[in-house]
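Task 17 of the worksheet. Students: predict the tertiary structure of the chain below and write it out as structure tokens. Keep your answer in the requested format; marks are given for formatting as well as content.
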Amino acid sequence: MLQPLPTIAPNGSARPRIRAIDALRGLVMLLMLVDHTREAFYSTVSVADPLGPDTPRALFLTRLTAHFCAPVFVFLTGLAAWLYAQSRGGAAAASDFLWKRGLFLIALELSVINFAWSFDLTPAMLYLQVIWVIGLSMLALAVLVHLPRPVLIALALAIVLGHNLLDGVHVAGEPGHAIWAVLHERTIFDLPWGWRLRISYPLLPWIGVIALGYALGPWFAAEANGTARRRALTRLGLAALALFVLLRATNIYGDLHRWQAGKDALGTALQFVNLTKYPPSADFLLATLGVGLIVLAAFEHLPERATRLLAVLGGAPLFFYLFHLYLLRALNLVAADALGVDGPVSVPNVATLWLLAAVVAVPCWFATRAFGRLKRGSDAWWLRYL
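Model answer:
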């Protein structure tokens, strides 16, 4: 028996949204908020690497939860592109939208988002981070959507699982350095007028992730069997986790950095899951996407009331992203002024950090809900890009 997906009823001409997808995206937003609260209010704590072997474990685990965010969000972006194609007339319509939105996100990263991090109109360093790479991934997907689905799946898996074969390739000082750095090597470029450019998110692995999301789109067709889909998502997630454990345990392939035994069993376990994010290794993507697929299946099975709050955040993620960046920055400036501190304000411990993130989430939720209602009730073309 076919079981239709639970959706959020739209207003006007907006297309229905799938609640489980919005809920998972909303969970990503919350975990990202915690990590960005850490950067805004805990970065002054003397810890060279929040995932280093000597890092306090509470801080390690806090940073570790953020690993879930980018891979799952990019995967869901690909899935959303397939759903858009189905509601707007096919791959050509999706390709056109992906081109426009991708370019819009790149421009947004270079302007509004960089300013949110620095509050400096002439920053010495421009950072090309997650919104930049999502924009570039969309441009790539705008081309890939025209491939036959089996070819797209094969290409996506080849990139996700095979890109670590390129870890030893370095072309610094050669003509192709800039292109290679954008694709697979985190680096800094010197620009005219004394500016510098930091590529924080190399592109190549993310093309595989967004393509994989698009390729799995037919599982979410309106006529698809819900029980079979949840079972398939769970099995695929477990298979990804099993392959991650196998690759990581052998310590031969899958991540640039091999794990080593820690001071105790927990320390060893934490180093086992301390994976390379920039660019995301095959192990990193298997672990995070495996968990994401299982959570997506679980959210589909939950009653509507259990995921309602998360779905609000996931219904307008770009608005949430912009709003929370400026809110965190403003709160730190206000706190510094109130306390008479010259520089960023820092909370005393990780528990306070999580509490602060929970407090910040409240105005973010209400603002995102208001914007989501505006977006669903309007036919304005520009709202589709936010």
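Marker's comment: The chain has a mean pLDDT of 91. The chain has 14 helices and five strands.
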